[in-house]
Design goal:
With about 350 residues, the chain is an alpha/beta fold. Helices cover about 35% and strands about 15% of the residues. The chain folds into 2 domains: about 110 residues, Aspartate Aminotransferase, domain 1 (Alpha-Beta Complex); about 220 residues, Type I PLP-dependent aspartate aminotransferase-like (Major domain) (Aspartate Aminotransferase, domain 2, 3-Layer(aba) Sandwich). It is globular, with a radius of gyration of 21 Å. The chain starts with 10 loop residues before the first strand and ends with a helix.
Length: about 350
């Protein structure tokens, strides 16, 4: 276990050692940028540190309607609503979905999507897809709600979704896009860029705004009727809203996020180039590079002032996954150093 007294960015300080940091998320690196921090400070000066009321209170703060409209447009949905965390947003989306139909979980769905401790399917994704198509097509409309992640950050993969076009009956699809929003798509709109559109499909997109945008919060977006109904749930009405200063920062950081997304894409492309024909795995050009397993590599890199991601997940007894997480803050020399030491350790 490692401890620090400073929030990591491109580097992290450990016991007076400055180490390259290839872990965590904050993929766009906004949290370390003076311009972004200035927007947060500006928001605090205007709105304070929090809005002391529930979302169902009789006094509303107009900036929440502003960011919800902007996020709905960004995610190409009719409406959206924000929460204080991505975890809470996902829980609210699934709780609402459970009122719409029987939940069909994709294998390996993130714990934030778990409703009443479901037993996740212990079959391959391909088998689950075939079974799901059959289940949906042999039951009445709106009988099922499909629950899935859009990106698996532990395997650095994007599962296939073209099969959704084979659904002949109407179904709700809850898609957690926490590791896609802000990164995927030409404008950072996330997975909706590649999710198939069909008269049978109704999407409910949920996501953390922390992973890419460095905002403590979450969003659920979808059809206006679904968002209106979701807002009637106690999990929404009784929850504390997103920090208004963070809403302010997101609304005014669009150009900054665009520039950092370009930097992130360039960094990913550079490390992909360096690691071609190696044991480093990243088939979909995501910020997560999967490294060979074992404590040896982790310690070897740490001894050379490089920190990578390696911890049991999603359960305490799960096997650790070694990953190098690239952000927009990294320099080419950082990735060259990382790659050189990985190659040294493995050879």
């Amino acid at each position: 276990m490692l401890y620090t007294d400073n929030t990591p960015g491109r580097t992290v300080v450990l016991e007076d050692r400055t180490c390259l940091f290839f872990s965590g998320f904050a993929y766009l690196g906004l949290h370390q940028l003076p311009a972004f921090k200035a927007l947060v400070k500006e928001g605090i000066e205007k709105y304070g540190a929090l809005f002391p009321s529930s979302r169902a209170g009789n006094l509303r703060l107009s900036i929440y309607e502003e960011i919800e409209h902007a996020l709905a447009v960004h995610l190409q949905q009719q409406a959206s609503t924000v929460f204080s965390s991505g975890f809470l947003a996902s829980r609210a989306a699934v709780q609402y979905a459970a009122s719409c139909g029987e939940l069909l979980y994709a294998p390996g769905s993130h714990p934030s999507l778990w409703h009443q401790d479901p037993i996740l399917p212990a079959i391959t994704r391909e088998e689950w897809i075939a079974r799901t198509i059959e289940q949906v097509n042999t039951h009445p409309d709106h009988h099922f709600a499909i629950i899935t992640d859009t990106v698996n950050p532990l395997t650095s993969t994007i599962p296939p979704f073209h099969w959704l076009q084979k659904l002949q009956r109407k179904a709700l699809v809850v898609a957690d896009d926490s590791h896609g929003i802000g990164i995927l798509g030409p404008a950072g709109q996330g997975a909706i860029h590649f999710l198939p559109q069909s008269p049978a499909l109704r999407y409910l997109i949920c996501a953390s705004t922390a992973k890419a945008y460095s905002l403590q919060g979450g969003v659920v977006a979808g059809h206006a009727a679904d968002i209106t109904a979701l807002k009637k749930l106690p999990i929404y009405s009784g929850s504390t809203p997103m920090m208004p200063a963070h809403a302010h920062a997101w609304l005014h950081s669009g150009e900054l996020a665009r520039k950092m997304r370009m930097s992130l894409q360039q960094n990913i492309a550079y490390l992909l180039h360096l690691s071609a024909d190696s044991s480093i795995h990243n088939p979909h050009a995501l910020p997560m590079f999967i490294l060979p397993a074992g404590d040896g590599l982790v310690q070897y890199l740490q001894d050379r002032d490089i920190v990578i991601s390696s911890f049991p997940y999603p359960q305490p007894h799960s096997e650790p996954v070694n990953r190098a997480v690239v952000s927009a803050l990294h320099l080419q020399e950082d990735m060259a150093t990382l790659h050189r030491f990985i190659q040294e350790c493995l050879h």
